[in-house]
Amino acid sequence: MIRRSRAGAALLSLAMAAGLAGLAACSGDDSGDGADGAVTLDYWLWDDNQKASYQACADAFHTSNPNITVRITQSAWDQYWQNLTTQLAAGEAPDVWTNQGSYYPQFVTSGQILDLQPYVKADNVDLSQYQGGLADLFVKDDARYGLPKDWDTMALVFNTDHLKAQGVDAASLKDLTWNPTDGGTFEQLIAKATVDAKGKNGLDPAFDKSKIKTFGFLPEFKDGSQGQNGWGNFAASLGFTYLDKNPWGTQYKYDDPRLAQVIDWYKSLIAKGYSPALDKASTLANDALMNAGKGAITITGSWMINSYLGDTAKVKFAFAPLPAGPQGRKSAINGLSDAIWTGTEHKDEAWKWVKFLASPDCQNIVGGNAVVFPALKDASEKALDAHKAKGRDVQAFIDEASAPGGTFFLPITDHGSEVSQIVQDAIQSAVLGQTDSASALKKANDQVNALFK
Amino acid sequence: MKTKRRDDRRAAWWFLLPVLVGFAVFYGYPAIRGAWYSVTDYTMLNQPSFVGADNYTELARDGEFWHSLLVTVWYVVLNIGSQTLLALGVASLMHRLTRSTVLRAALLLPWLVPNVTVGLLWMWLLDTNLGFVNHLLTSLGVGPVGFLTDATWAMPSVAAINTWAYTGYTALLLYAGMLQIPQYLYESAAIDGANEWRMFRRITLPLLRPVLALVLVVSLIGSFQIFDTIAVTTFGGPVSATRVIYYFIYEQAFRYFHMGYAAAAAICLALILGVLTAIQMRLLRASRSDLA
Description:
Mean pLDDT of chain A: 89
Keywords (chain A): Signal, Transport
Low-confidence stretches of chain A: 1-32
Number of helices of chain B: 12
Strand content of chain B: under 5%
CATH topology of the largest domain in chain A: D-Maltodextrin-Binding Protein, domain 2
Number of domains of chain A: 2
Number of domains of chain B: 1
Oligomer: heterodimer
Largest sheet of chain A: 7 strands, mixed
CATH architecture of chain B: Orthogonal Bundle
Organism (chain A): Asanoa ishikariensis
Family (chain A): Belongs to the bacterial solute-binding protein 1 family.
Subcellular location (chain A): Cell envelope
CATH class of chain B: Mainly Alpha
Distance between the termini of chain B: 30 Å
Helix content of chain A: 25-40%
Protein name (chain A): Carbohydrate ABC transporter substrate-binding protein, CUT1 family
Low-confidence stretches of chain B: none
Largest sheet of chain B: none
Distance between the termini of chain A: 43 Å
């Protein structure tokens, strides 16, 4: 194949000249002090859904701090971390940026994030006002590398018309049970929701699993080291934990037989025809398949509320809590934070902005727009009310977050992206039948833990 | 006479200067820096420090690296094989049957579409659940096939996508080469009673060799650099069935930020390509034409 100037060729030189790349991509160095002491802060985020809300925060902030202007840059998730790392390497990073659990440890290790603890102490920021545990996710050795901005939990999302047609009462989805042996009432629901080309469902003896029209359950196997959109929640409901301690553990526990049990249960769904086989799965995301009527139920996060209940949805969807496992109902909870770059020339102004972002003044604006659930408990209630006002039932996400012991945190450690690839490959190879679940996970666990030696 | 030649040479350097500066800035300097990074532990966020041949010895032990090379070779075989054969066929047909400009333009169309668009287009067409190709296959009673999600099919599918995109362009280059072959050779062969297949083997192929050599060298190097189609359609998966060397380098550099390690892998790839090109040029005696 003969190819024109391409990303591929550019990449080779890029890999070689990473330093140069930093110089080329320029965020502008005009954030310096103006003649009248005016300061411009650069603030980065990745979610285009949230940009408007934070712009409103920035405007409110500017009103009360007329000498500080916040300039927001939004870039898509995949580019976000590359751009950020390049800018950090070039010494041109934004003053404040949005952080996520699996990415921020590397910035802490390389000394790029400012310790906020002295500021928090000096300004007496009340950390108990945030959803339980969120503030501690960004603490290492008594240093604090961010203030919480929002959280998300997981829930079932289902095609309401499809389930109704199969004679399923939507209310019954509130009390589903699950276990790895027979899948509990959840698996019965999945079987009922799976429909073949002749309209027979999975419980019908004449059910033809080779010709499926709608799968009962769409699994997510591109789910990194966490299984946030699926296996992680089931494993947690069996008592599985990722790590010796979280955050900042150094010993992963993917060789736990309970995790292998979950993967085996997923494989059994495929074998029964209730879920698409991984090698025949779609390259498209589950929400596209749900919208195309190819799946009846899947697991999704609260950040997807607007996609499923918004105007662009082609099918009527609703949410239900995750099924309860032997150890109860467990949902992954994840929180984002705002961090300050150690290299910023405007530390005090940046702190003012971060404090504002984490305060009711900003989080109530964000909550009122019903895009994400803000980290402040009160602001989350605002988000719930805003959803209700739009006629959307998102109670499942809130109930899970507020149930005692109902949530678990995703792992936060060094080597996050490597761990993610190793574990994802292992789970996929097990699901594809290239190896059995237990030995795939054992091998992956050894590889993962070797990274910390 | 002598001074004249020297003047010419000086003028030539002036004309070459813009290219040379570009080459030095965008290739020479980055290459040197890359070579330096390959013997450091650079992660973009640290001060690189010298680690000797550590990256290289680790590469030699890294199963993923060897796997990615193997996968790349598999892709190259599939892609270059099908693309060259198809292009030769198409070029011969154009050469011997029609010289329509419209046809030539049409052949180039897939090549004009940006690679990422090509990748996305085929990702949708080949999708197992929603794709048109599988819709057709299913209505014919053949399966759905997991073109991009089945470990056996993923690489042939990627190769086929790029063959689709580049065959027209390759055919056009070969066609241009065929136009260089004197028409009287075919005429006398026809008088001697040779059929088309014989003329192709005895006239077209041998006389096309210099062009074919160039096309093969360039397309082989391009093929080794397969990246964007994979970055759009399979992300190196399923598991690691399509994790080619470039994707491996990309992941090491921009996902794990192991810049030193990635640079070492890139240097290895450059060496491999250098050796391959040398062998190929030699085998095909590229500089000598049988016409001479």
